[in-house]
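S., here's the first fold you wanted:
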Amino acid sequence: MEKIEQKLIKTEATTNPNSPQVLAWASWIIGRLGGWKGNPKQRPPGPIILLKGIEKFENIYEGWKLASNYT
């Protein structure tokens, strides 16, 4: 998830404010994958955005598993 987080950070304002030891850190990443902009002034991601993010993360994870098995 740390590699995904690095790819999602576009500006200083859209950095993940949470520590990697808390669940909010992963929720921030999942929300960004789902299409949430991540601005501090914006409301937190809702259930639909989180669902889209989880689906995208599952696809990334499946691809990673496939790539790991063939090396």
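And the second, which I think is the more interesting of the pair:
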Amino acid sequence: MSEANLKVQLQADMKSSMKTGDKSRLLVIRTMLAAIKQIEVDERIELDDDRIVGVLDKMLKQRRESISQFTSAGRDDLIAIEEAELVIIKEFLPEAFSEKEIAALIELAISNTGATSIKDMGKVMGILKPQLQGRADVGKVSQLIKHKLT
């Protein structure tokens, strides 16, 4: 299996950050590469771009959760750090879907599965989750689906 383009891009950006002396950016990129490498070592595989997007999406979700916890604790200093990391991680993810695109995907998934009630939510999410990976907050989309099906 050939090396993933996203991983190559991350490595190139790491070198660029080293040359320019951007330590905060370098730290975030190294963290992303370490998370990717950890999975590759554990599973003894080379990750493709789709799987790397999944890893970065998970990191994004962790940052969002941290921000909400730091907000409730009143830790503005830590919120700023997490938000800066969020921006850097987003640079390596595909362009996010607009609200119209998300609504259209939800409608399509509901019609394809024949979902009529909240009991069918798993079917709809099963279709949407791979499409939304790294391009939308799956939690928010889940709320939109619940609203549609109730």
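Why I say that: The chain has seven helices and no strands. The chain has a mean pLDDT of 92.

Talk tomorrow,
H.
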